[in-house]
Design a protein that fits this description.
2 copies of one chain form a homodimer.
Chain A lengths: L3 E6 L4 E7 L2 E8 L11 H9 L7 E6 L13 E2 L2 E2 L6 E2 L8 E4 L3 E3 L4 E3 L2 H11 L5 E5 L4 E7 L2 E8 L1 H11 L2 H4 L7 H13 L4 H15 L3 H19 L1 H4 L4 E5 L1 H13 L5 E4 H15 L3
Parallel strand pairs in A: 1-4, 4-8, 5-9, 11-14, 14-15
Antiparallel strand pairs in A: 1-2, 2-3, 6-13, 7-8, 9-10, 11-12, 12-13
């Protein structure tokens, strides 16, 4: 018997778990993320996703569903603040018995920064690792570096590295160089070192990917490794205050998280690794437990 | 009476001048750049453009028309080399009386780099400024910094700054922030300084554009100024060996060239300015004069 529903609603995708207490009983997902929905479309998208799960209509959601362009704006909490629990915002659902509550994002005034969804992952990580202090790195389209202490988000900084990779790799002359499979990890590692040593050369090193393809036969796998390494290396150089001498955990999955970990290893760190599905669900459970019934 | 035709054939556009000796008699242009043409399409596109000009079929062309994906590949000359004259490559035109000769681009082995079209602008600049030694900056999608001495291209470096601006401004979350007119020049200048002082923070400073829009009402004109300033500032920091203590000329037109000049002024330089139409035509004239009849 399901007694509540956990939802992670991002820009591109939405995922739901049918929950009994702290245990997921079923899972469903679709590509009807915030970016593809009008304000009036959220309720139908949710019902399509969870309609097969009998009974319960108590939903806790995190992510871009609470953005200004989402179902209802859930105003940011300002740093420093606990990751959770904080006041949830109730969405204007019309279906009888359906109550959808949204976890607010977190903002920082100076330097200006925002997150939506990652605060729930952070809360989940802290639930799974009680008393943990240090830096969390959450790789993605907008990679977050987060300083956590005594259960609070102290400060954070977002790097657009993932979106830069996607835009530069597909919308510039580099698309010709990336036309092929794979990522060469040695080229990646060399490019991390290169960008950390000479961050200002980024624009020139990017063009070198194209030029070396034309002149010296750089392969697509090498090109992808260099593009990724240059951007992650630049980020590591800029995020140095977050990781230098710090205890670091990388929250993520798959090749991207492994690549951040590999880059940090080159700096002499041995980051802890956490799976982002696990911490997201743990954060939604923490929010459910902390919410008034 | 036209006695030859000068053509500047880039990726996006093609422009032709009906010439009598060193004087343009008429001009025509279209958007049938190399990027929109198959190998078989160049001759027709050219004839459509110059068909109204009676008589002469002697054409000198520069730019991407000589790329591997162009009409015929005009292999690169390797640095150090004169900008012009060098051997021209004859395109396989089928129309009786039509002779099209293409100016080869210039390549550099290490660091790997390539140019096609800019070598003609450089030759034109030198024709208009005999004996000039120093650094040429050619802003554009792929901005070139070129060290010129004794009439030769000694070395050069390409920064993808213009394409980065276009891709990041239109294909990432920043597109929401740039939705509006104008460029705030004060914000541009501050961002140049910021990026030069802290080049590694690029990815974070880019995201700050979005965050300051959400939290502090950054305007579209300020957002565009900051995006442009961060990217040009990063480039100036990376290109420092080219301009520091050097005589510099900026070859370009319009707001972009003015913005590069403004950024260089902030570094204590007073760059000479040259119009890119004038130098392109001067370079094509130099190639025509240097070519065997």
């Amino acid at each position: 018997m399901t007694d509540w529903i956990a939802v992670d609603w991002g820009t591109s995708n939405v995922r739901a778990w049918a929950m009994r207490g702290g245990s997921p009983m079923a899972q469903a997902s679709s590509d009807r993320g915030m970016g593809r929905l009008d304000r009036d479309g959220f309720e139908g998208a949710l019902l399509d996703l969870i309609g097969g799960w009998a009974g319960q209509g108590d939903v806790i959601a995190c992510g871009m569903v609470g953005a200004r362009q989402g179902w209802i704006e859930a105003p940011y909490a300002m740093t420093p603040c606990p990751a959770l629990p904080r006041g949830l915002i109730t969405a204007p659902a019309r279906t009888p018995g359906l109550r959808v509550r949204i976890i607010p994002g977190v903002a920082q005034s100076a330097p200006a920064d925002v997150m939506r969804g990652e605060e729930t992952q952070i809360a989940g990580f802290l639930r799974l690792n009680p008393g943990w202090d240090g830096t969390l790195c959450l790789p993605g389209s907008h990679t977050k570096w987060v300083q956590v202490s005594a259960g609070e988000i102290v400060s954070f900084q977002t790097f657009m590295t993932g979106e830069m990779f996607a835009a530069l790799g597909s919308q510039t002359v580099l698309r010709h160089s990336l036309n092929g499979e794979g990522t060469d990890e040695d080229t990646f590692a060399a490019a991390v070192d290169d960008a950390m040593a000479h961050p200002a050369r980024l624009g020139a090193r990017l063009f070198s990917i194209r030029a070396e393809g034309l002149l010296h036969g750089l392969t697509a796998a090498q090109a992808r490794g260099r593009l990724s390494g240059l951007l992650i290396g630049l980020e590591l150089a800029g995020a140095r205050p977050y990781w230098l001498g710090a205890r670091v955990a990388v929250i993520g999955a798959g090749a991207l998280a492994r690549r951040y970990a590999a880059a940090l290893l080159r700096q002499g760190l041995t980051p802890a690794m956490a799976d982002n599905d696990s911490v997201t669900l743990a954060g939604l459970i923490a929010a459910h437990e902390g919410a008034t019934p």
